[in-house]
Amino acid sequence: MNRIVLTLAVALLVCVPPSAGQEWSEVSRDILDMTAIPEDPEADAVVLFDKATVAITLRFQLVQQRHVRIKILTQRGLRYANISIPFWHKDKVKNLKAHTILPDGKRINLKKKDIF
Which among 57, 94, 101, 116 would be 20 to 30 A from 110, CA to CA? Predict the structure, then answer.
């Protein structure tokens, strides 16, 4: 019985596709122009979203995708632009993508030398 439940759980995880990068869509002008949030006018930054999906491949590898968007509101908020990705020493980080979006909408892609 436990084997059937485990197999079913694994099958469901494999069949649920990770998000298709919808978070990388265009950023609205309202977000780009935002200088404060009504809930906390003194905030230095605001997390617009932090989503993760986890899947198990057919080779029983665990795959996690994480999409984070943070709006930096002040100079002090720049410290929130550094994102940590916890991982085990045997894990492999692949396909890491990151970019900065300036207030004018211009995107600056993260370079490999800036990943540490």
Answer: 57
- For residue 71, give the nearest of 116, 18, 30 by alpha carbon: 30
Q: In degrees rounded to 5, what are phi and psi of residue 82? A: -85, 120
- Ranges of beta strands (E only) in 14-114 are 45-56, 62-72, 99-101, 107-109
Token pair 């649920």: residue: 16
What the block records as the tokens of 68 is 């984070």
38 vs 10, which has greater pLDDT?
Answer: 38
CA gap 9, 55 in Å, rounded: 11
**What does the block give as tokens for 81?**
């632009």
Q: Residue 75 pLDDT > 70, yes or no?
A: yes
Beta bridge partners of 49: 69
Write phi, then psi, for 38 (nearest 5 degrees). -60, -35
**What residue spans define the domains of the chain?**
27-52+65-114
